[in-house]
Amino acid sequence: MKLVSAHIHTDHRIKMMLLFLLFLFLSTTISAQTWTLEQCIDSAKVNSKTLIISKNNVLISEQKNKEIRSNLIPKVNLNADYKYFTDLPYQLMPMSVFGGPEGKFKEAQFGVPHNFNTNLQVTMPLYNPQIYGGIQATKIASEMSKLHYEKSEENLFFEISNAYYNAQILDNQVRFIDSNLINSERLLSNIQLLRTQLMARETDVDKVELQIKQLKTQKSLLQSKYEQIRNMLRFLINVPENQPFAIEKNIVEKKSTNYSTQSTVEIRMIQTQNRLILSELKTLKTTRIPSLALIGSYGFTGYGYDRKPNEFFNFYPVGFAGIQMNYPLFNGMVTQRKIDQKKYELENNSLQNEINSEGTSIQIVNAKMQLSVSKNAIETSEQQVALAQKIYQQTLLQQAHEMASLTDVLLADTEVRQAQQNYLTALIDYMKADLELKKITGNFLNK
Q1: pTM for this one?
Q2: Is residue 140 scored above 80 in pLDDT?
Q3: What residue segments make up the domains of the chain, in order of their start?
């Protein structure tokens, strides 16, 4: 009996252990389905196709810089050609060479039908200011590509944050409606009871039923919007459709919004563009400077004759080395026109920098003002929600004692819903203003 009892006790412990492990597994699975905003952003960093394209553009710009640098490396070319002359070229020989009259010429064919040439050519730039200018320009362009990547990253994370907050607001609206539906259904039950006791009219029942239908319709619309935003969020962070995905329901209000003003991505892009234009302008001016290159060639020239009895095909070496200079004398003012264009681009860039700086200052002031207004609105609307719910409960008690009409109850319920909506509106205004302030002060990508 003791053995049986011990065996049963052991089985019970094993079952309890398995149930406990199953509970942990289910809890872990459920919690893993809920994504925080930080997790969404981290997923986008790795999986976003938009960011991958921007990252590839950075790599392309780096390869372009390496390509320009390669122009400083000596170039080696192998050339070869073979020609068979069906008709040998003619040359005009002065007859005076052979004792004939002056001013008279006689045609003559020179050469052999078989001609073969092969040579190895080496070219290395000794001094070429355009190559050095191109290296500097592509280096700055590579920095610009990195800023474009940073801008794409910022825009994507801003869009994800906005979508996440909108989804949270819609989810909370649905939860408020669920709470209001419970109150309305209780009210309907009470009114129906009063109707059976001839203490309420049929129109009173219809009014409450109409309110319930309106709430259910509103809930359905909000749920549809929520699913649309959730699908958009899933697309932005590249989460497969078959993967469970949910967001946090509780909205965490940020308390600290003291962001130090830093240089934004837009301003840094304008400044980098300014450096790029200056580099291109400098390169254009250096096109008027001569360039030098070291050149060399070594190869063989072959001549062949295919008629008997003097058939032959002989090769003769040929080689040279030297320095080649290229000096542009006049190109129809094309370079000057390009220089003038770059000067106008430089002026526009400076003006755009001033516009952005002034606009950012105004945006910071407006965002801080919106934050302050939204924060006060949140505190006020929270109090209004509590007060509206209190009035609603009091009106229900008064209606039960026939001290208030059904209309008063419905009006009180409407005030509750309006207060809830005002609270959510103020909350999302605050969160979006915080996002905007973080972005325009250059702190959005900072942890």
Answers
A1: 0.77
A2: yes
A3: 43-73+150-290+354-447
